[in-house]
Hints:
single chain, 86 residues, elongated
Amino acid sequence: xxxxxxxxxxxxxxxxxxxxxxxxxxxxxxxxxxxxxxxxxxxxxxxxxxxxxxxxxxxxxxxxxxxxxxxxxxxxxxxxxxxxxx
Length: 86
């Protein structure tokens, strides 16, 4: 699949109602986990580390379409200038 085609699909994904729902639910889950960590007096370091990792992973997943979009835009710009290998 070409970079241009992938970019169009990612833009469509980011504008879709389904992605908006996923984004909203994930942000709510991140907030709930952060509040749990803040309110919990008795949480082991292992639990804290696990929860921090879960929050980090959720943020990475939510940012993935934008990250890939930026990468593809850069590759397309290089291709348009005859520098890329696509």
